[in-house]
UniProtKB/TrEMBL annotation:
Protein name: Phosphoribosyltransferase
Keywords (A to Z) from UniProt: Glycosyltransferase, Transferase
SUPFAM superfamilies: PRTase-like (SSF53271)
Any one GO molecular-function label of the UniProt entry: glycosyltransferase activity
UniProt organism field: Gigaspora margarita
InterPro entries: PRTase-like
Length: 245
């Protein structure tokens, strides 16, 4: 059973370029950092107690894998939970952008596209393919798609199970800003690599993570339970927390 006390290994607060990180004090640990994403979510919920019942605040899961983590946070803090569906655009091993079901406008890395001499036809083709996958996921998962607040006082707890390179999280943050969200973004993760931390120095976000090793490796290696969620489980998570403020 998970102790009601916050483990001593996560009580150290580290500030990097005015961004607050909660990172592990241990350098040695068992192979997996957590039994499950739900376990990590319970710990994170206690770290995020400040946001308990906070108006104009929501929990947003980057894709479906972190939903057990995000659900624990949303449930314990009495906040709405939603899903932010994102697909990265990759061509010949290069990540050239990302898309979300919230807008038809893609997020593109123009410099890489020009440098790799990627044709518009090739780009359009990959966007169509990934858009098709997004539409399928949206139909299967039925996320509430709560409209993002236009208030600068709003807060989104942007959750992900782990951050290795930070590309997905940065894409999510950029897309949120592109969609007009002007409030506070708190990036919440079970584990974040130290190199990824540096990437967020330019992003106006707070970062809360339980573990902050120099090397993350694969995110899955930090969780003992890596069973893929079923469509029904995903819908249950979202349906259970389907309300807005």
């Amino acid at each position: 059973m998970l102790s009601e006390q916050i483990p001593s290994e996560i009580l150290r607060t580290h500030t990097l370029n005015n961004h607050k990180y909660i990172v592990s004090m241990r350098t040695r640990m068992r192979r997996a950092g957590f039994v499950s994403r739900a376990e990590a979510g319970k710990i994170l919920a206690r770290l995020l107690k400040y946001y308990d019942n906070m108006p104009n605040t929501s929990v947003l899961s980057i894709n479906s894998a972190p939903l057990p983590l995000a659900n624990e946070i949303a449930t314990k803090l009495n906040l709405p939970l939603d899903l932010f569906l994102i697909r990265t655009l990759k061509i010949d091993g290069w990540t050239v952008g990302a898309i979300t079901d919230r807008t038809e406008e893609p997020l593109l890395k123009d410099q890489i596209i020009r440098g790799c001499n990627i044709s518009q036809e090739t780009l359009d083709q990959i966007i169509r393919q990934e858009r098709f996958q997004l539409d399928m996921q949206r139909t299967l998962f039925q996320p509430p798609n709560i409209p993002f607040s236009t208030s600068e006082d709003a807060t989104i707890l942007l959750t992900i199970d782990g951050i290795q390179t930070g590309q997905s999280a940065r894409a999510a943050i950029t897309l949120l800003r592109q969609l007009g969200f002007k409030g506070k973004i708190v990036l919440v993760a079970g584990v974040i690599g130290s190199d990824a931390q540096k990437m967020f120095k330019r992003d106006a976000v707070d970062v809360i993570a339980i573990k902050g090793p120099q090397s993350v490796g694969t995110v899955a290696s930090w969780y003992e339970n890596n069973e893929e969620l079923t469509n029904e489980q995903i819908k249950n998570f979202l349906g259970h927390n389907r309300y807005s403020r």
